[in-house]
UniProtKB/TrEMBL annotation:
Source domain of life: Bacteria
Official protein name in the record: TRAP transporter small permease protein
Compartments where found: Cell inner membrane
Species in which this protein is naturally found: Marivivens donghaensis
Domain Tripartite ATP-independent periplasmic transporters DctQ component: 30-190
InterPro entries linked to this entry: DctQ, TRAP_DctQ
Membrane topology reported for the UniProt record: Multi-pass membrane protein
TM stretches of this protein: 21-39, 51-70, 91-113, 163-184
Assembly: The complex comprises the extracytoplasmic solute receptor protein and the two transmembrane proteins.
C-alpha cells in the first residue's frame, strides 16, 4: 500500500480514537444532567434546561463515538454468514458494501449541512454555496462580514430556547468523521485482500 494511504489510515485512526475516547465520557455528563433533573423536580423548582441538554449530550455522545465504534469493530453487524468467513472473505464483503454506507453517509452529511445552514440563517436551497460565500466573506471582510452573511439564528421552541446551531454543527462534524473512518476501513480491507495489514 502507498505511504499516503498508510499515513491517512494512521492519522484518521488516531484522530477518531482521541475524539471517541473523549466522547465516551459524555455519558457521565448525561448522568449528571439527568440526576440534577430528578433532584430539581423532587426538591426544587424543575429546571427548564435539563431535558434538552440531556438530548444534546446524547446526540454528541452517539455521533462523535460512531467513528471510534467503527474503528474498533464494535458496530452492530448481521453476521449470520459473515461470522464464519475468513478475514479475506470478510474484507471482500466489506469492500463491496462500504459503497452503500458511503452513499448513505454522503446523503446524511448533505442533509446535516443543509440543516446547519438553516440554523445559522440561510433559508435557500443551496447550502454549499452559502458556506462558500460565508468563507469568502470571512477571509475578505473579516468576522463582521461573515456575521452579516448569516441571518437569524435558529432557537429551540422550548421555554429555555437554546441556540440549535452547536448541536447541528456537532452532527455534521460527526458524520464527516464517520466518512473519514469508513474510507480508512475501506483501505484496510483492500490491504487485507492484498495480504497487507494496515
Amino acid at each position: 500500500m502507498p505511504k499516503v494511504i498508510r499515513g491517512y489510515v494512521r492519522f484518521v485512526d488516531a484522530m477518531n480514537r482521541i475524539i471517541g475516547r473523549f466522547a465516551m465520557y459524555g455519558i457521565f455528563a448525561l448522568v449528571g444532567v439527568l440526576l440534577w433533573s430528578s433532584i430539581s423536580k423532587t426538591f426544587f423548582t424543575p429546571s427548564l434546561w435539563t431535558l434538552e441538554t440531556a438530548q444534546f449530550i446524547m446526540v454528541a455522545y452517539y455521533i462523535l463515538g460512531g467513528p471510534y465504534s467503527i474503528q474498533m469493530g464494535s458496530n452492530v453487524r448481521m453476521d449470520l454468514f459473515y461470522g464464519g468467513w475468513t478475514p479475506k472473505q470478510k474484507a471482500w464483503m466489506d469492500g463491496f458494501t462500504v459503497f452503500f454506507l458511503l452513499f448513505y453517509l454522503g446523503v446524511l452529511l448533505y442533509g446535516a449541512l443543509g440543516s446547519l445552514a438553516y440554523s445559522i440563517g440561510y433559508f435557500g436551497m443551496e447550502p454549499l454555496v452559502f458556506y462558500k460565500d460565508l468563507i469568502v466573506s470571512f477571509f475578505t471582510g473579516g468576522p463582521d462580514a461573515a456575521v452579516e452573511q448569516m441571518g437569524y439564528l435558529e432557537r429551540s421552541s422550548t421555554a429555555w430556547r437554546p441556540y440549535i446551531w452547536p448541536i447541528k454543527l456537532t452532527l455534521a462534524l460527526g458524520v464527516f468523521l464517520m466518512i473519514l473512518q469508513v474510507l480508512a476501513e475501506f483501505f484496510r480491507d483492500i490491504g487485507r485482500i492484498r495480504g497487507v495489514e494496515l
